[in-house]
């Protein structure tokens, strides 16, 4: 068993499609993702097994990242928070790499579990991360003390976009964990630093 299989704890449920076997839609998606993470990600290779629906899903996920008014560093914080709550090692490792590439302060990366009290986070970021957490844990039962600051500090557009980013990340967590997508070799060192602590 190689390191990537060991890191995930199991074998991928689908073959990881080689770059030369990608459909045109997957070639485009692979380019979009590799700009973000510096490699062709294994989740792109896994989804390439479904030429139409997989390509549609990848385009949706890429568009959620590329479009909207939320700054990408904030999207990365949201995505990491959701991935950590869902204990998705694959996505958590990738989001740490993305946060670094997007210039997220190391204090925020290191203290994500303490976002409610750590001085690195603004009140708005606390409201956003608290909402993303509650949405991930139980979307139908978000407490009023979470909704209050979220509604007060964010515009209508921001509220919708935070919800879309968090929900899309939850979907990606399920896809990657469900298909048992293994971590790429460069991500293993990052993965070893991750702890899954629910707030």
Task: Please explain how this structure is put together.
The chain is an all-alpha fold. The chain folds into two domains: 12-66; 72-191, AhpD-like. The chain has eleven helices and no strands. The longest helix is centred in the last third of the chain and has 23 residues, at 156-178. The relative contact order is 0.18. The model is unreliable at 1-8 (pLDDT under 50).
Highlighted features:
199 residues; mainly alpha; AhpD-like; 11 helices; 63% helix; globular; disordered N terminus
Topology:
Blueprint: H1 3-8, H2 24-37, H3 42-47, H4 53-66, H5 72-85, H6 89-101, H7 106-110, H8 123-138, H9 144-153, H10 156-178, H11 188-191
| CATH topology call of the largest domain | AhpD-like
What pattern of helices and strands is seen along the backbone?
HHHHHHHHHHH
Instruction: Report the CATH architecture of the largest domain.
Output: Up-down Bundle
Biggest β-sheet: count, sense, barrel? none
User: Which class of the largest domain in CATH terms?
Assistant: Mainly Alpha
- Provide the CATH superfamily of the largest domain: AhpD-like
What proportion strand? under 5%
> What form results from the Cα inertia axes?
globular
Unreliable spans are 1-8
